[in-house]
Amino acid sequence: MARAEFLLVACLFVIASSLSIRHNESAIEDLEEYIEVKKAEIGPRYRLQYHVSPPVGWMNDPNGFSYYKGEFHLFYQFYPYDSVWGPMHWGHFSSPDLVHWNQLPTALIPENEMCFSGSAVVDGDTFTLIYTGREVIEEEPLFKESQFLAFSDNGVNFHKYENNPVLTSKIPDFRDPKVWKYGNDWYMVVGTKTSDEYGKVELYSSKDLISWEFLSVIGESTGEMGYMWECPDFFNLGGKFILLMSPQGVQPQGDRYKNTYQTGYIIGSFNYDTFEFIPEVGFQEIDFGHDFYASQTTEHNGKRYLVAWFSMWDVEHPEDLDGWAGAMTIIRELNLVGDRITVKPIEEMLTLRQESIKTGAFATDEVLTLPKASELVIEGDLNEKIELLIEGTEGGGKVWLRWDPEVGKVVVDRGSEDIRQVEWLPIGEQIWRVFLDTSSLELFCGEGEVVFSSRVYADGEWKISNLSPQSLLVDAYSLARSVSV
């Protein structure tokens, strides 16, 4: 190509790229105007106060959980135009402390591709999003999934890489990239499945985030662990490697695997020379509640933090009548203790405590009324039964929390046989920390050996009744609003 022709092509490419970026920025500006107008129509009935939820419309998986230029960032699967799932965007919040969250402009909008789940990394001064683009095709199964990039130099405005996608596959279900750096190389795990419908996770590497090389399969179902492994995460915790993922198609086994889909982890060892992950402890659920899926972690200052979608597929979302649906759990800190992960609320949650509503004895049959945003710390004699009824002062949904020493199980019962329960073996503190928001409950047992996350759509304020045969010790606090939408 002659120099003049080359310069002409280069100029046309720059112009086309500039037009594409301006078109994208204009579309996001239009969307943000729509969101601001639509907010006035959103019903407050079940609106959460210290959990991230969408300003309008639908939210599912957390994406791009990361730290950039002094702030934590949390993106999410977002459909702003209705309170049901639709063509996926990336919504965006930021926080200085993982507790107080501010809404930012939508980061990604669908074009030829829907913007499915992914992660974020910092490369020098550049904030890079790595996400799955799902495109419609004419051949069965009528879609394909590939990995795309988008870049930002300020953590707010993103432009998509002009040569997307950067990683493709012959397998249609190929999604949810989680990327991290080790040494001089970038690594990516992707959720997918085998040709005979068994879930698996593949590992790739890159020098520049653009050219990727397949390394190995680091995890694969043999049938009992489902047909698709979504939202994989892979990280070092306490000297072991953790493969965290959300398998689909796992059949219930007694008390286990009662939700539509599960989220859990495998503990093992990993070698960066051979790229082999050797499982040492089999799959364990990381949360035992009704509403927890698609978790993602990030590491900062030596701590591993986790967040998840505070909902579940194929269930009712009563808030959708109010113009929104879906939320995120509070942020939790992970630690490896023996052959399991403990999950605790981050210390910064203490900063939300406002008024101390009750401290001391909580007698049998006593009733305690708490605001919509509250925390309850309960301690009792584990040699005796414990039972709390948590309901709304104006009716609506209710939930029973129980401890039965004869079977050693904690129970979360939403009525109508909608029960989740699991064995609890305390390793230290023998308390329950219960976080209540307008339509949610999170129960942390002891040092975080057992955790339940369940949505509870009660009306009015919270009413707590001690149905136990024993008096309990209680500390109850109102909590401050910490999320702006």
Brief digest:
The protein is mostly beta strands. It has one helix at 3-38, and strands spanning 57-68, 71-79, 89-95, 101-108, 114-123, 126-136, 143-152, 159-160, 174-182, 185-193, 199-206, 212-220, 228-237, 240-248, 264-271, 276-285, 293-300, 303-309, 324-325, 332-337, 340-345, 353-362, 367-370, 374-379, 386-392, 398-404, 409-413, 419-423, 431-437, 440-445, 450-455, 462-466, 472-479, 483-484.
Quickly count the helices: 1
Oligomer: single chain
Widest β-sheet, arrangement of strands = 19-1-2-3-4-34
Shape: globular
**Which structural class do you get from the secondary structure elements?**
mainly beta
Structure description:
- This protein has 485 residues and is mostly beta strands.
- Helices cover 7% and strands 51% of the residues.
- The strands form seven sheets. Strands 19-1-2-3-4-34 form a six-stranded mixed sheet. Strands 22-33-24-29-30-31 form a six-stranded antiparallel sheet, with no helix packed on it. The chain has a six-stranded antiparallel sheet with strand order 23-32-25-26-27-28, with no helix packed on it.
- A hairpin with a 2-residue loop joins strand 20 and strand 21 (340-345).
- The longest helix has 36 residues, at 3-38.
- The N and C termini lie far apart (53 Å).
What's the topology here?
Blueprint: H1 3-38, E1 57-68, E2 71-79, E3 89-95, E4 101-108, E5 114-123, E6 126-136, E7 143-152, E8 159-160, E9 174-182, E10 185-193, E11 199-206, E12 212-220, E13 228-237, E14 240-248, E15 264-271, E16 276-285, E17 293-300, E18 303-309, E19 324-325, E20 332-337, E21 340-345, E22 353-362, E23 367-370, E24 374-379, E25 386-392, E26 398-404, E27 409-413, E28 419-423, E29 431-437, E30 440-445, E31 450-455, E32 462-466, E33 472-479, E34 483-484
